[in-house]
Every structure is written in C-alpha cells, then in structure tokens.
Amino acid sequence: QVQLVESGGGLVQAGGSLRLSCAASGRTFSIKGMAWFRQAPGKEREFVAAITWSGSSTYYADSVKDRFTISRDDAKNTVYLQMNSLKPEDTAVYYCAAQSEIYTGTYYRTYDHDYWGQGTQVTVSS
Fold first, then answer.
1. DSSP class of residue 66?
2. CB 24 within 8 A of CB 78
3. What local confidence, expressed as pLDDT, does residue 55 receive?
4. Which among 28, 98, 103, 106 is most buried, taking Cβ atoms within 10 Å?
5. How many CB atoms lie within 10 A of CB 4?
C-alpha cells in the first residue's frame, strides 16, 4: 500500500502564494504518477495538476496553468504544488492522489488514482 500525507494549506490573500506538499510512503516503487485534485463546497472534485513518477511529464488544468507548478523530490518521495497568484476561486480542499496498483495511462480523472491523502484546506480571501 501507499500512504499519502499532505501539508501546507492555509489562509492567504488573493494574489498570494502557497506551497502544498504530499509525502508518499510505503510501496512508492509502484507509483506511476501523482496528481493534485481539489474540491470546493458543493462542487465535484476536479483535476489540478499531475506529474509522472519519473518527473518527466507534467499536466495542468487550464484554470491553473501558468500559475501553479507541480514538482517532485525523488529523495524525499514528495510531490509539491507551488501555487502563485491565488484567486478566491482557488479556495477548496486540495487532495493528493497516486496511481499505484492500477494502470490507466492518464492522471486527470479521479479513477486514475487508487490512493488518496486526507486533504488540506486552502482558503483565498478577496
């Protein structure tokens, strides 16, 4: 199994920045890719960004492209989401996800991932 622990959420003013971290442990050798999703109250969980475990490819939702950057630290088995120029509409619970025991070839759908973190709240005030 894979365990995912997110950190780094908080309250920030519009235009500010936050960096989320997701530390993976357990069977990390089986991870093919990881992603960040977010869910605002009353809305469905949506894709934010993804990275292959090799770090060679990254993917972004149009709504965050050029503002957010996903990266990983191989030595720490940690994936980061650097969020700049935050907007009130970025307010949500952010979840880290990993594709480990399954293989789908994509990372932007919730069912592409079989392990999830507990989520971290990001609130952007106007």
1. T
2. yes
3. 79
4. 98
5. 23
Q: 5 in helix, strand or coil?
A: strand
Q: Which of 88, 104, 106 lies closest to 12, judged by CA? A: 88
Evaluated on CA atoms 93, 99, 103, 107, the torsion sign reads positive
In a 3-state reduction of DSSP, which class is residue 59?
Answer: strand
Q: How many helices (H) and strands (E) does the chain have?
A: 0, 11
The closest of 107, 93, 96 to 22, measured between CA atoms, is 96
Mean pLDDT (10-residue bins), the chain, 126 residues:
96 98 95 96 97 91 97 94 98 97 92 96 97
How much is the pLDDT for 54? 84
The residue among 7, 15, 6 whose CA lies nearest residue 124 is: 15
Backbone angles phi, psi at 29, to 5 degrees: -65, -20
CA distance linking residue 119 with residue 126, whole number of Å: 23
Q: How far apart are CA 40 and CA 4, in angstroms?
A: 20
If we measure between CA atoms, which residue out of 117, 122, 111, 125 comes closest to residue 41? 122
